Amino acid sequence: MPEKKLRELVENLHKELSSTPSVDRESRELLEQLTADIDQLTARDEAGAGHRSTVLEEIDQATVRFESEHPRLAMLLGSIADTLAKLGI
Prior knowledge:
Layout: H1 2-18, H2 25-43, H3 49-66, H4 71-86
């Protein structure tokens, strides 16, 4: 169940990103890299703990970064972090 929710959240993040033209190039690239990292984490169970913690830290930093200007993106990132935690990632 959490895996399905995670896929939905990542899909929603992609949709939100594509429909939010005010996101600058650097932020857009950051979000695209985060979604790629999330996909990689969920596709491979053997991802190292160091990589997992780095991705979670990057998600937390991005959440804080987007809170004021892009609250919907921040909310989606927070939900993704929560779901990853429920999956034990």
